[in-house]
Specification:
The complex is a heterodimer of chains A (276) and B (495).
Chain A lengths: L1 H20 L1 H7 L15 H7 L3 H21 L7 H4 L1 H11 L3 E4 L26 E5 L21 E3 L8 H4 L11 E3 L8 H4 L10 E3 L9 H11 L4 E3 L38
Parallel strand pairs in A: 2-3, 3-4, 4-5, 5-6
Antiparallel strand pairs in A: 1-2
Chain B lengths: L3 H13 L23 H15 L18 E7 L3 H13 L8 E5 L15 E2 L6 H15 L1 H5 L16 E5 L1 H16 L4 E4 L1 H7 L10 E5 L4 E2 L2 H14 L3 E4 L1 E14 L2 E14 L6 E11 L5 H7 L17 E12 L10 E3 L4 E6 L4 E6 L16 H15 L7 E13 L6 E5 L2 E8 L9 H14 L13 H4 L11
The chains are: A alpha/beta (276), B alpha/beta (495).
Chain lengths: 276, 495
């Protein structure tokens, strides 16, 4: 009776002891004690909780992050093995096709692209002295290092870098090498391009068409449009309106002019607020 | 005789109440005791705080130790919490062979960073120098800033943004300096910088707002040049270093205790000293803590000369090697911000005029900032950071208005002043040690181009500490020993 009775008494204590170990976590994350609602269960859940407390888990997660950078680096390596035999243009073509892009040579209408499975024929290797006129790298993982493959092109007229997640201001600063040839540049939907990178496009003297629609990192879109048009007077800048970034007061009376539609719908608009 | 009326009034309350039994207290007013259940939220918050403090891993101590006191022993003490100090701290932790091999602490005098050169800096980075070492350091720093998230990114924190503007530096040269500029451009290109040379006609075409009178040739940095936010870089270094185990303490290093050994030579005695410990005085307090350390890194910026004197460097008799002191002193420089609505647009680079005046665009609203280095005999007083607005009116504005005619009409919005850690000997960095004070490492004397070389300089000194020699960039030309042998290493492109 004695021992069985003792267990019965000690059981709640064991339960309490287990709860005490979890108490700091509960204290931090529980709403019961009136802590601020933003510090509820930690983001990332149990993995984040362990990562903050154990070096090995932190190292594993950091290694995983580094692998992402390594993967991008591998995709963007320089295809220098072709340079000696075929020239810089073929290097660029090989790089573009390897990353799922398209190439158009000078004097041709057809675009060279890999098929749906990413395979492409190596027939272009014979086109040694033909200049590359247009490159389409939209949606690819091309980054600052990948542009190593493209900077030696002398006849490039059109470059499409739309929706590339790794193209940022540093990559744009490399495009000055195309100042004598580049006529068309498409930067739609690049999330890391800001106005600081657009400022270094002033070196592209031949640029005639610049597409900068849907750049989420740019605030004051209308102002940027005006400044870009002043900076590149002979270039047509598309993709932004003068009214972008200017929130209109719904009750404001403007005398006799047609205002551009602001980019946010009226129900989400607040007077005087400039959307990011 | 007690009057019955008074007695009755006095005894009134006692008589009207029912007689209380023994042991009961007499209550005259409402109880003052806190009601636990009415302020439940506050009471629970207090209880939670006390419980957290009593659990392990809280710093509550029954003996009431001063918070923020540095430890009694440390391996490396970095004196100075600016970008140089934190850069060395980060690289020491990044390059050490085993986790926590070195106990590194950073001691900073001013928690508000009100006079720190880093945060008052204009924040430019350029590769247009004449010394190969300077060019290589800037190139490495540009690479570091480009890949800052790979180096200084912390897991599950938002990516670091230093607001890098890629607009480049434009140096203008008059006839007499044109040859030197062209020679420098060749040296820069040899070491991997991309710089272009422009004639006055090309300048006029590219920048129609510029007046090209007196300009013979100009050099423009095409890549890896521009300006960025120094505070973001400082915080990025600091957060990463603290995540890797460096501790920050606030206090001033007041004195050192130095042990020396004397070497007797035929020409006289030479004292070789070694710092054994230093005294850190707590801010706003007389309390100080001795910290026994193996190495001291002098990253105190403009005050590093004063710190070296406190360690006894340069206090020897005249004419001996021991009289050579660290020639770094603070020099005040002004930066003015003005607004000009019709000024240069987005393409405006950091322009450095033939006269030494400079300006750059700041933001998108037609604001510009700039200044000019004063002549040697007109150096302003360094007691405080008050701005002299007459200096702008007399020295800076005429030069800028001559170069950019639109600046004839501008409106000064604000101004600030900061210190250069000016090396009076040859205006270049002092990196490394000296045999006379063998465990103090210098990382100072940058004379205005420190911020842009901070990642490379920090890595160099960390390599020196961990490996005994420079591994990535050879910076032996910047050692302290050139001061002992009076060999100047001059840089011609000082702004």
């Amino acid at each position: 009776m004695g021992l069985a009775g003792a267990w019965w008494i000690l059981d709640p204590f064991f339960h309490l002891l287990q709860q005490c170990r979890a108490l700091p976590h509960l204290l931090r994350s529980s709403c019961l004690f009136g802590s601020d609602p933003s510090s509820n269960l930690p983001k990332g859940g149990i993995l984040q909780y362990l990562c903050d407390r154990f070096y090995d888990i932190e190292n594993v997660l950091a290694w995983r992050e580094k692998q992402k950078y390594s993967k991008i680096e591998r995709q963007n390596r320089y295809h220098g093995h072709l340079k000696e035999y075929c020239g810089d243009d073929i290097v660029a073509v090989n790089f573009t096709l390897y990353n799922g892009g398209g190439v158009r040579f000078k004097g041709q209408e057809k675009w060279l692209r890999p098929n749906k499975r990413g395979k492409y024929s190596k027939d272009f290797l014979v086109l040694r002295d033909v200049l590359v006129e247009a490159i389409d790298l939209s949606g690819s993982v091309v980054s600052y290092d990948g542009l190593d493959n493209l900077v030696f092109l002398t006849g490039l007229k059109s470059l499409d870098l739309s929706r590339c997640p790794n193209i940022d201001d540093w990559s744009l600063s490399r495009l000055h090498v195309f100042k004598d040839s580049l006529e068309e540049l498409l930067l739609t939907g690049c999330p890391r391009v800001t106005e600081r990178g657009l400022a270094c496009l002033h070196q592209l003297e031949c640029l005639r068409h610049l597409d900068i629609s849907n750049l989420p990192s740019i605030a004051n879109k209308g102002l940027i449009l005006i400044l870009l048009e002043e900076m590149l007077p002979q270039c047509k800048v598309v993709g932004m309106d003068y009214g972008d970034g200017v929130a209109l007061d719904p009750g404001a009376q403007m005398s006799g002019d047609e205002m551009e539609e602001p980019s946010i719908p009226s129900r989400d608009r607040k007077a005087g607020e400039i959307p990011a | 005789m007690i009057q019955p009326g008074r007695l009755c009034r006095a005894l009134g309350p006692l008589l009207t109440r029912p007689l209380l039994g023994p042991g009961r207290r007499l209550h005259i007013s409402h109880p003052q005791r806190r009601d636990l259940f009415s302020d439940l939220d506050k009471e629970l918050a207090k209880f939670q705080k006390k419980l957290k403090e009593s659990l392990p891993a809280s710093d509550w101590n029954p003996m009431g130790i001063t918070k923020g006191l540095p430890p009694e022993h440390a391996d490396v003490v970095i004196v100075g919490g600016g970008v140089m100090g934190w850069s060395v701290a980060y690289w020491l932790k990044a390059l050490e062979t085993q986790r926590n091999a070195l106990r590194v602490i950073v001691v900073e005098r001013d928690p508000t960073y009100s006079q720190a050169s880093t945060v008052l800096s204009v924040g430019g980075i350029r590769q247009q120098f004449s010394l190969p070492e300077n060019i290589q350091m800037s190139l490495y720093s540009a690479y570091f800033l480009r890949t800052i998230n790979e180096h200084l990114g912390i897991l599950n924190q938002p990516p670091i943004d230093i607001h890098f503007n890629h607009s480049g530096y434009l140096f203008l040269a008059s006839e007499d300096r044109a040859a030197m500029l062209e020679e420098n451009v060749h040296i820069q290109r040899d070491h991997g910088a991309s710089v272009s040379l422009l004639s006055p006609a090309q300048l006029k075409k590219k920048y129609p707002w510029m007046n090209t009178d007196g300009v013979a040739v100009a050099s423009y940095g095409l890549e890896n040049e521009g300006w960025f936010d120094p505070w973001s870089l400082l915080n990025a270094f600091r957060n990463k270093a603290m995540a890797m185990g460096v501790c920050q303490y606030f206090g001033e290093v007041k004195s050192f205790s130095v042990a020396s050994k004397t070497m007797c030579t035929e020409k006289g005695d030479v004292n070789f000293s070694r710092i054994s410990s230093l005294q850190v005085q707590m801010p706003n307090s007389l309390e100080s803590q001795p910290v026994v350390c193996a190495l001291v890194v002098n990253a105190a910026g403009p005050w590093s000369g004063e710190l070296a004197k406190r360690a006894g460097l340069g206090m020897g008799s005249q004419g001996t090697l021991e009289s050579v002191f660290l020639p770094v002193e603070p020099r005040k420089r002004y930066v003015y911000v003005w607004h000009c609505p019709d000024g240069p647009g987005l393409e405006c680079p950091m322009l450095i005029d033939t006269t030494g005046a400079y300006f750059r665009r700041d933001g998108l609203g037609g604001n510009y900032l700039g200044g000019c280095s004063p002549a040697e005999d007109e150096e302003p007083h360094i007691q405080d950071l008050e701005v002299d607005h007459d200096f702008f009116q007399e020295k800076v504005w005429p030069k800028l208005a001559h170069r950019v005619p639109v600046f004839e009409s501008l409106k000064v919005k604000s101004a600030w002043a900061g210190y250069y850690d000016y090396n009076t000997f040859d205006q270049n960095a002092v990196l490394g040690q000296t045999p006379l004070l063998e465990n103090m490492y210098f990382i100072t004397g940058f004379s205005g181009h420190g911020l842009q070389q901070s990642p490379a300089a920090g890595k160099a000194v960390a390599e020196l500490i961990l490996n005994g020699r420079f591994m990535s960039i050879d910076l032996n030309n910047f050692s302290f020993n050139r001061l002992l042998f009076h060999e100047q290493v001059l840089e011609s492109n000082i702004v």
